[in-house]
Amino acid sequence: MTRQDLIAALWHGRDPFADPPADLRAADLQGWRSIHPYLAEAVTDLRPRVVVEIGTWKGASALFLARTMAEHDVAGSVIAVDTWLGAVDHWADAALFAELATEHGYPSLYRTFLANVVREGMTDRIVPLPLDSVNAAELLHLRGVTADVIHLDAGHEEASVAADLRAWWPVLRPGGLLIADDYDRLGGRFPGVTRAVDAFCAEAGVQGPWSLRGKCKFVKPE
Ligand SMILES: C[S@@+](CC[C@H](N)C(=O)[O-])C[C@H]1O[C@@H](n2cnc3c(N)ncnc32)[C@H](O)[C@@H]1O
Q1: Span from the CA of 222 to the centroid of ligand 1 (angstroms)
Q2: How far is CA 141 from the centre of its chain?
Q3: Can you name the CATH fold of 3-14+24-219?
Q4: Can you give the residue ranges of every domain in the chain?
Q5: What's the gap in Å between 202 CA and the centre of ligand 1?
Q6: Are 80 and 132 in contact (CB under 8 A)?
Q7: What 3-state class would DSSP assign to 22?
Q8: pLDDT 10s per residue in the chain (222 long)?
């Protein structure tokens, strides 16, 4: 599916980046492990047409995926799923809460993401989807959109990750790759991620997960 097909399927043909505001915010690519070998290898090894990222924040990892596609002539797009409202860890921490840039009681993080995508010249590679993870998975399913690669980096609590894996597994094509962030066999800051991923892999009978520097990955059997 091309980006145009995705816009038709998910946005009723209206390109969300068609008319960006003149008063764009400054570039701000703060993120977490947004540049990672698993993301680069997913692009160069699988040459995906459709990557879905669940949890995009300011766009640093989605832009890394998109840039890597452009550099390697991969004709693919990144669907960036996020409410742009933050997760519990952002609301609970004063410094991260400030990053949400609330205006009149509502986060304006999406505007930072938008500015980053426009400034990086990647509007033709990214399709934002401002829905919660489970609704977004349902919409893609309904529209017959499948993913070659999924990068899961949304809620980090065990229940969220378990629900996300269940919701997104049917969207991933057989042979597709799932990469999850904040996976740490030693527990780490979000031990629920590791518990949910390990339980899911055992239940789904997949090999792995393999892990490297805070991310893990596994392949959906053919
Ligand atoms: C850790 S940040 C993502 C970081 C990003 N991948 C990067 O590398 O910079 C997590 C993001 O997930 C989003 N999020 C959390 N739970 C979500 C849910 N259930 N549905 C959609 N987005 C969610 C938050 O709004 C936040 O922007």
Answers
A1: 29
A2: 16
A3: Rossmann fold (3.40.50)
A4: 3-14+24-219
A5: 25
A6: no
A7: coil
A8: 999 999 999 999 999 999 999 999 999 999 999 999 999 999 999 999 999 999 999 999 999 999 999 999 999 999 999 999 999 999 999 999 999 999 999 999 999 999 999 999 999 999 999 999 999 999 999 999 999 999 999 999 999 999 999 999 999 999 999 999 999 988 889 999 999 999 999 999 999 999 999 999 999 999
As given in the structure block, the two tokens for residue 77 are: 């797009």
The upper half-sphere exposure of residue 42, i.e. CA atoms within 13 Å in the direction of its Cβ, equals 35
Assigned token pair, 75? 């004709």
Atom index in ligand 1 nearest the CA of residue 58 equals: 9
153: closest CA among 68, 38, 15, 56?
Answer: 56
Q: Is the CB of 155 under 6 A from ligand 1?
A: yes
DSSP state, residue 27: P
Helix axes 191-204, 158-168, angle to 10 degrees: 40
- Contact call for residues 41 and 100 (beta carbons, < 8 A): no
- Name which of 190, 167, 172, 208 is nearest 33 in CA terms: 190
